[in-house]
Design brief:
This protein is α/β, with parallel strands linked by helices. Helix content is 46%, strand content 15%. It is globular.
């Protein structure tokens, strides 16, 4: 999944065009969506791209249910919520997606466990959760599974443990992926693409190592070669 973290539609569409023909997903996050809106998603879908809408819904159940309906009607292939919102909120997200799909294709609805920029020290000292970070990730993943969601966003470091706790079919979407030798930037828990796949990741989210490269297509091609694909 290529993270299109751009401030405008033109830059995002230009990068997507450079990657045409390589079967990757496009991740549309907050910066791009709030700048370009739903029309950008429609344009990417019209070009044949699969879309992960990464807006991390976290609100009262009724509001999240409505947001899930809107995301599903937009035609995205996956969207996420924050597991910290609780089981009722996560169930509401799934209900909204099912309602809006009207028997048609259902997007994958997944939950964020802990951000890959969050260290255990930050979680304990600032967020106020006094437990090992890996235990919190598994607790949230198990809660998402019980709520009926299709999977979670987690660090690749926790992907194997999530699979062990929630089953092989429970989807793991893993940000914080950095090719060998790349700058980790603001990420605290990272893995290379090959390491992440070996650890049970289903989807690899990669942004700056591709989108910030002088030749994004060649950067992506190197990653594909790195994982032997």
């Amino acid at each position: 999944m290529v993270a299109l973290d751009f401030p405008d539609a033109e830059a995002a569409l230009a990068t997507a065009a450079k990657l045409e023909g390589i079967p990757v997903w496009m991740k549309v996050g907050m910066e791009l969506f709030y700048a370009a809106g739903p029309d950008l998603v429609r344009r990417l879908k019209a070009q044949g791209h699969r879309i992960f809408l990464d807006l991390k819904f976290h609100d009262i159940p009724n509001t999240v249910r409505g947001a899930a309906r809107s995301a599903t009607r937009l035609g995205v292939d996956m969207f996420n919520v924050h597991a910290a919102g609780g089981a009722a909120m996560m169930r509401a997200a799934l209900e909204g997606a099912v309602d809006a799909s009207a028997g048609g294709p259902l997007p994958l609805v997944i939950a964020v466990t802990q951000l890959t920029s969050t260290s255990e020290e930050t979680m304990r000292r600032e967020i106020g959760i006094d437990a090992p970070l890996s235990d919190v990730v598994i607790r949230y993943a198990s809660l998402a599974r019980e709520a009926g969601l299709h999977g979670v966003v987690s660090s690749a470091q926790e992907a194997a443990a999530v699979k062990a706790a929630c089953g092989a079919g429970f989807v793991t979407v893993t940000p914080g992926i950095r090719p060998a030798g790349a700058d980790v930037a603001d990420q605290a828990r990272v893995m290379t693409p090959a390491e992440a796949l070996a650890n049970g990741a289903d989807y690899l989210v990669i942004g700056r190592p591709i989108t910030g490269a002088p030749d994004p297509r060649e950067a992506l091609s190197r990653i594909v070669r790195e994982i032997g694909g």
